[in-house]
Amino acid sequence: MISTETRPAPTSTARWHVAVLVGGFALLAAVAVVSIGIGAQAVPPMDVLRALVAPDGSANQLIVLEVRAPRALLAIGVGAALGVAGVLIQTLSRNALAEPGILGVSTGAGFAMTIGAALGGVASPAAELLVATLGAAGATLLVYAVGRTAPLRLVLTGVALSAVLSGISLGLRLMSPDVFDKYRFWSVGSLAGREQAPLLVPMLAIGLALVGALLLSRSLNAAALGEAVARTLGANIARVRLATLVLITVLAGAATAVAGPILFVGLIVPHVARRLARGSVPWLTGYALVLGPLLMLLADIGSRVLLPTGEVPVAIVTGFLGGPMLIWAVRKYGAGSL
Amino acid sequence: MSALVLRAGRRSFRVERRTLWLSAILLGTILALGFVGLCYGGATWASPGEVLAALTGAADSVVIVEWRLPRVVAAMVFGCALGAAGAIFQTLTRNPLGSPDVIGLDAGAYTGALFAFTVLAGTSGQLAVSSVLGGLLVAALIYLLSLSNGLSGLRLVVIGIAVNAMLQALNSWIVLRADLEVAMAAGAWNAGSLNGVDWADLVLPLPILAGLLATLLVWFRPIQQSTLGDAVAATTGVGLDRLRLMMVLIGVGCTATVTAVAGPIAFIALAAPQIGRRLARTPGVALLPAALTGAVLLLTADLLAQMLLSPESLPVGVVTTAIGGCYLIWLLTQEVRRR
Amino acid sequence: MFTRRSARFGGALLLAIAVAATGCGTSESQDTEGETRVFAADNGEITIPADPQRVVATGYAVPALIEADAPLVGISTWKRGLPMMTKQDRARYDELEKVAGEQATETNYEAIAGADPDLIVIGVPQPVLGDIDVERLESIAPVVAIGPTVPSAWRENTKKQADAAGALAKFDETKSEYEGKAEELAGKYEDVLPDLKLAHVGSYGEVDSGNFQREFNDSWGTNVANDIGANYYGEVKEKGGGSQDVSEYPSIEELPSAFAEADAITYSVEADGTPPPAVQYVLDSELWKDLPAVKADKAFPIPLTEAATYRQAMQALDALDESLAPLLEK
User: Fold this and answer.
1) Distance of residue B187 Cα from the nearest chain A Cα, in angstroms
2) Which site from B227, B256, C30, C328 is most exposed, i.e. has the minimal number of CB atoms within 10 Å?
């Protein structure tokens, strides 16, 4: 799946990658500022900049600092988490179609949180994160255990699991609308109105898991080359796989805990990143770290400007973007594995 | 294995003895369940004697003949249609997870229904037409997108999933934008229900489904053999791609017709063919057991839907989802163990 | 094979239906004995008994007809109205036979037929009416549909429902009691309330995350307060018809500009005083804390905003009196 294309000399490759990454981060910063400047209430650009540099507490600056800035940070964190989780899943399963959303990992996390919230007891952000991660882990294990033999099979299993979970949720909602109405918010992922939610714990978890993914990416690179090669390179495949699975569930779980299920970011990002990374998993992870937030910020901007009034939840924007991407990927990669 | 060969004109059907016995038993079960369905309704039981009297016309009973009977007949025929549609898709895709509800036809029908609810007045006629159109358009789209050097089954399924994801995004967006009451009505439709089905609702669907199932009975075996190798198809004299297209159309037709009347009823199409295959112990998906098992499943689910929270009833789609979900998890674990 | 069987089955059935249909005709003629009148409802001009004796009610008609002491024999469940029922009405609600659930699609036609009504009053909104097989209900008894339209229309709708069920006497009694009470409170707040520019944060309907509901005059949270002289300034930016003429769902970012001129702000809370999630979100926002009215300590919780009958509205008046009392303390 991961094409090992012709590689230029190592030093120039590294320099090239660093240059592209720096450019990427600059672009990301610019898009983040644009995202903070856009919203339902028109705020003059100078006010936006002043709010960032010298806050004075006016209503417009409050909007920028209290509503839009946390939202942009959230988009960056969620985008990075989903993008890197996509890279990890695709590398681990050697499956170009794998993605936390399609595989039902996000649905599993959202479902676990709904049940947890309905049964009571899941109130603190740490508990929410734990339950979401457990749900993500359960879904990952089930889907991976059943579908690992073939790329399309993995996708099918994930979709089947999502269908079951959403069906059960619908039934629960119809039987007891009051208790399960909360699920409405978890059924469509959105970044709106999350600025007051305690984001420190999940963002911290995402940050740690991202660092872990970067550290692990070299071993994963070895593991991706096949068991024999990995053993000669001294990587413990079983341990690497386990660590990767843990990171995937934490990343997907935390992202779902703060934003609800968001599909396709983890599919689009690795496919674009792969063209830049030229077969190296560490660089692939690095690119995902930039491209994920970039895509998420752009989708979130889209969610605010696509309608004359009101918003489209960001998961709907990524759904529209990702559907064609999946069709393209199936037509490109799917045929070989039938 | 012992087998019977039935001849009808130039065509011959080879039916394994076990399949024949199984079909007879399933048919008996269907009739028995149907009779129970006639006895029970609205949290009250009628005695078998009353039901027989009403059926033979010896006694008048609007409730049994005009309310319960259409519901029972609908459950039987719709169950058959969904089971048969599942058999088609699972044979074509050679995958136990290939079913119209997994690959997005239901989402297309829901988009059509949402259009009827939000843009049109949402009458039952508009609902039926636009949901069928929605399902057909989506099916055509998926089919065209999956074509490249011929049709590949699994690619059809995954492209169905991709289209499904986009449609679901569209559907949730429409629901979020709609009035609360419209959203509630649409959500209730989307759960799938046989409540309130009467003869007037069935006048058109029954002949359509009968026609589709009859066509299917004739053409299913060639398509099943064709999955073993394209060479076999040459003997039937029909191009393989045209045959597959026809099968897809029949499968979509069955699903869309049922959806138009009852809303999407999930998982029957997924579960029935596999359960039927295991009961009949046939190597591939067999049509007759799949269709009959579908009827048994839907009748059982509809009875449960009426009984569980009596006197309130649940949408039957919720019950089929629960049953189908349990079945699916079992299916998945079975597949793992086999490895 | 199966299809052939069902076709033959269907043929035999046609005969049975024909027989049943004639039977149906005779039973209907019994129902329509006695005097009738023509009643204008959402579903057209309906001929109903002048003095119905056995009434089935669903949806919003349930609390209205229980209050009006209508001759009910069956009702749908109506969980959202339970917190506002008086003890007496609640007892009546509990003892009445439930013939339908909250979901209109799962209306239990046989249970309704079993209750043997001579009138069915359906209180569901127009779009939901499509989920109900009205024809089948009409084969049981005359059906009048009187559903909610705009938030303040409960006054006319409950009157129509009570009228159809022949229970106007008790209804009018409750109505004049409410009007007396509203007048009294209007007098009490005469000096303070009418001059205030008010704004209301609601929680009705589906408030998307990141948004808040602003209600104007004649909306859910405001229509009872309007009766005692409260005036909610401004109007909806883009009128969408029905309830969208009196309330809107702007983004939280628009909170400062929307409420900048408000002298006082009211907000919906549950019967026990806790704000629902959509309102809590606004209350927790830094933008809310920065509003002039909030800084001046002029934000008041209003419970029971979902009142949709006169007796419920009377409780809402009491609650309003309690919430707005600080206004009089100057």
Assistant:
1) 9
2) C30
Task: Give per-residue pLDDT as tens, B193-233.
Answer: 888 888 888 888 899 999 999 988 887 776 666 655 544 44
Q: Is residue C18 part of a domain?
A: no
Q: Is residue C310 part of a domain?
A: yes
Residue whose entry in the numeric block shows the structure tokens 């229904």: B113
All structural domains of chain B: 3-338 (1.10.3470.10)
Task: Kindly state whether residues C249 and C310 are assigned to the same domain.
Answer: yes
Q: Does the pLDDT of residue A289 top 70, yes or no?
A: yes
pLDDT tens for B293-324 read 999 999 999 998 888 777 677 788 878 877 77
Structure tokens at A15: 């320099």
Report how many Cβ contacts below 8 Å link chain B to chain C. 136
Q: Which of C166, C195, C227 is the last residue before a domain boundary?
A: C166
Whether C306 maps to a domain, the answer reads yes
Alpha-carbon distance of C158 to C167, in angstroms, equals 11
Domain annotation covers residue C178: yes
Contacts of B185 in chain C (CB under 8 A): 104, 127-128, 130-131
Q: What residues of chain B lie within 8 A of the CB of A102, using their CB?
A: 161, 165
**Residues in C touching A40 (Cβ below 8 Å):** 250-251, 253-254
Q: Is C63 helix (H, G, I), strand (E, B) or coil?
A: helix
User: Closest residue of B to A335, CA-based?
Assistant: B155
Q: Domain boundary at C129, C150, C166, which?
A: C166
What total number of domains does chain C contain? 2
User: In this complex, is the C-beta atom of B254 within 8 Å of any C-beta atom belonging to chain C?
Assistant: no
**Chain A residue nearest residue C260, CA to CA:** A59
C104 lies within 8 A of chain B by CB: yes
Architecture category of domain A10-337 in CATH: Orthogonal Bundle (1.10)
Interface touch A159/B102, C-beta < 8 Å: yes
- Helix and strand totals (H; E) in chain A: 15, 0
Asked if the Cβ–Cβ distance from B312 to C106 is below 8 Å, we say: yes
Sign of CA dihedral B227, B229, B232, B233: positive
Residue B261 pLDDT: 86
Give the span between the Cα atoms of C118 and C102, in whole angstroms: 22
Enclosing domain of residue C314: 174-328
